[in-house]
User: What shape does this take?
Amino acid sequence: MSGGQRGLPPAGWYVHPTNPQQEKWWDGAAWTDHARAKPAAPPSGDIAPTPTSSVGATCPICHSDDALRRVSVLVDEGVTDTRGSALTLSPNEGKIRVASTYLTTTGMTQLAKRLSPLARPSFPWFAHFIGWTLGITAFAGLVATLSSNEPYMFVVGGFFAIFVAWIPAAVITYVVGKVRARVWRERQGEWDASNERLQAAYFCARDDVIVNEHEAQRPEDFIAELFRPAAA
Assistant: This one.
């Protein structure tokens, strides 16, 4: 919030006017209904000190910072790697052999998933390769059909063409990827900048919102809006 009315203290947490053991939120013009326990080390001086935040941000909904945590910290804490090994018995030439299998699984809490960024954009090499391969195969089948006036030649010509169509498809995909490399680098740069903003933002567990630059949004809405330019 901006500063209070002229002659009044700015918005912030101040000593409760009727309960010194608590603090009450002053919106710059009047007391609100929001109250909290007084910090262990209250600031000295007048009854209306300059408000401070221990995390550098305040939720604009609950006007508090005790439920705020960095998004980057919550995501890191929500990702778990589980590693282990298992013994398996398998018959081999009439004998039972014992084999050891190493297992690694990665888990993620629901909150970490909600606070995770969208996938980093990259050139779809495989999709282009498959698309060009099928396109060249279909073109070869069409040429075979028109040359012989036999409809079945579309299938026959396409079947034999698919064994060599992947070669020009791979070359075309490589060329297109190189031509579009600058565009994809720009998109990745936009994604990196958006991800830095997301990791630097705070999540309020009390109100289930992401707080960034004194604004609060649901995690899904904030991330969709933040990464929309990079995904375009």
User: Anything to note?
Assistant: The first strand starts at residue 12 and ends at 15. Confidence is low (pLDDT under 50) at residues 45-53. Helices lie at 71-78, 110-115, 125-148, 153-179, 181-200, 219-226, 228-231.
